[in-house]
Amino acid sequence: MAKKLVIKVTAGADAPERCSQAFTVAAVAVASGVEVSLWLTGESSWFALPGRAAEFELPHAAPLPDLLDSVLAGGRITLCTQCAARREITEKDVLEGVRIAGAQVFVSEAVQDDVQALVY
After folding, report:
1. Start-to-end C-alpha separation, the chain
2. What is the CA radius of gyration of the chain?
C-alpha cells in the first residue's frame, strides 16, 4: 500500500459528486493514517477561501467543511499557483494552512516512491 496519497481535485460546484468524492477519499485516508497531499485546482480552487466550502451542497454526502477541516488537520492542502492567479486569489486570502504552489511541486510529490496519485 502507498505510504502517501497525492490527490488532485479539479471539480467544484460544477461537478459536485466528483468534488465530494475527492474530499471524502482524502479525509478517509487521513483518518486511516495515510499521508495526504490534496491539490485544489480548477473550480475546486474556491474551497481554499474561508467560508466557500460551507456553500457547497450535495445530498447524502458528508459536509465539505468537515472534510476540508479533516484534511487540514492531518494532511496538506495546496492551491495551484496558476488557478489561484486566474481567480485573483493570493496567499493572504486562503485558509490558514493552505499553501500555494505550482506544477513542479505537484510532480515532485507525485513521482516519489511509495506514492499513489489520484485525479478527480
Report:
1. 20
2. 13
- The pTM is what? 0.95
Beta bridge partners of 79: 40, 100
Alpha carbon distances (Å) from 111 to 3, 32, 47, 82, 86: 13, 22, 26, 21, 26
Q: How would you list the strands of the sheet with 115-119, edge to edge? A: 98-101, 76-80, 35-40, 4-9, 115-119
What's the rounded Cα separation, in Å, for the pair 22 and 10? 9
Pinpoint the alpha helices (H) of 1-120.
16-31, 64-74, 81-86, 103-110
Judge whether residue 3 has pLDDT over 90.
no
Q: Is the pLDDT of residue 2 over 90?
A: no
